[in-house]
């Protein structure tokens, strides 16, 4: 998609040069409406993304990082307002990758600031995010994994949704082991910075995550369908990554049950659209070979 947009930009520049050559002089037009921002941003967003992301990757200064994150946030805001799918997806994906939740050992304070910005965008731009909810909810799932690992659960029992499933021995449990205390790397199979781990389990962070799901009742009829579809896809990733584990990841599946409860009061045609996505997902989950997943799905349906 970025290649297509880049080619369109080049063609536009060539056309402008031809027009200027014919006229002899260029004419400057003063923008008089906020609607001019959309087309202008649509042809220049790649330069903004390159400049911001490059500086963000190489700078170790936290204040510089915060300024870059503010730039990404405003760029996503513009892309959402003017319904520019490609720029929105590119900026959200860039921000999600910068959280570094897939590589906990290298997750620093600047990466955690990126996570905060992403959650802030989820709360403020929910009605306009559309398919970009997938990246955000994947980060929420990864954050839950980080919280479990930093809480003492072995990384082998909490698979990464973005990686292939790892076989978990059936005779392995999560019971605490006796003996002298071990380091974070020895105890969980994954290293991380203790200060970042503590902040990830802070009350503010937990409340911020909860608000994303509780506020779904305020989403528009179209936006809630995008949200449910994205959460179903992340839930399916979690289940697939768990394989035949006795303790499969069902974080997003449980969240599907919660948001169903929050949105029960919607008008019938909106709830019908939601249930079309939910019903298909529960059918897939119910046909899983892992009986632990199947039983959890049945219990979830009973809750509804």
Question: How would you describe this protein?
Answer:
The protein is mainly alpha-helical and 304 residues long. Helices cover 66% and strands 0% of the residues. The longest helix is centred in the first third of the chain and has 22 residues, at 2-23. It is globular and about 75 Å long. The model is unreliable at 166-189 (pLDDT under 50).
Termini distance? Answer: 40 Å
Strand content: under 5%
- What percentage of residues falls in helices of 4 or more residues? 55-70%
Structural class: mainly alpha
Give a short account of the largest sheet. none
- Kindly provide the radius of gyration, computed on alpha-carbon positions and rounded to a whole number of angstroms: 22 Å
Overall morphology? globular
Helix/strand order, N-terminal first: HHHHHHHHHHHHH
Low-pLDDT sequence parts: 166-189
Number of helices: 13
Mean pLDDT: 86
According to DSSP, the number of beta strands is: 0
Question: Outline of this structure?
Answer:
The chain is mainly alpha-helical.
Could you list some keywords that capture this structure?
304 residues; mainly alpha; 13 helices; 0% strand
Task: Break the fold down into its secondary structure elements and pairings.
Layout: H1 2-23, H2 37-58, H3 62-81, H4 85-98, H5 109-124, H6 133-150, H7 184-188, H8 194-200, H9 203-214, H10 221-242, H11 251-262, H12 268-286, H13 291-303
Helix pairs in contact: 2-3, 2-4, 3-4, 3-5, 4-5, 5-9, 6-8, 6-10, 10-11, 10-12
């Amino acid at each position: 998609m970025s290649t297509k947009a880049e080619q369109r930009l080049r063609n536009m520049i060539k056309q402008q040069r031809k027009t200027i050559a014919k006229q002899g002089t260029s004419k400057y037009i003063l923008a008089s409406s906020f609607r001019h921002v959309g087309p202008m941003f649509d042809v220049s967003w790649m330069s903004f993304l390159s400049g911001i992301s490059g500086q963000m990757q190489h700078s170790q200064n936290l204040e510089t990082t915060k300024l870059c994150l503010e730039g990404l946030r405003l760029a996503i805001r513009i892309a959402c307002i003017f319904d520019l799918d490609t720029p929105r997806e590119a900026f959200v994906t860039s921000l999600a990758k910068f959280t570094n939740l897939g590589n906990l050992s290298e997750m620093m304070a600047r990466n955690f600031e990126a996570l905060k910005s992403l959650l802030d965008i989820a709360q403020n731009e929910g009605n306009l995010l559309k398919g970009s909810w997938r990246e955000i909810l994947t980060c929420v799932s990864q954050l839950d994994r980080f919280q479990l690992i930093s809480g003492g659960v072995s990384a082998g029992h909490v698979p990464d949704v973005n990686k292939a499933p790892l076989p978990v021995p059936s005779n392995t449990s999560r019971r605490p082991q006796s003996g002298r205390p071990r380091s974070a790397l020895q105890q969980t199979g994954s290293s991380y910075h203790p200060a970042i781990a503590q902040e990830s389990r802070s009350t503010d962070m937990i409340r911020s995550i909860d608000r994303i799901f509780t506020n779904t009742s305020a989403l528009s009829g179209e936006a809630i369908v995008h949200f449910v579809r994205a959460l179903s896809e992340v839930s399916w990733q979690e289940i697939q990554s768990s394989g035949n584990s006795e303790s499969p990841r069902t974080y997003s599946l449980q969240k599907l049950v919660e948001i169903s409860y929050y949105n029960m009061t919607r008008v019938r045609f909106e709830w019908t659209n939601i249930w079309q996505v939910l019903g298909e997902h529960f059918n897939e989950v119910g046909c899983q070979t892992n009986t632990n997943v199947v039983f959890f799905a049945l219990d979830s349906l009973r809750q509804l």
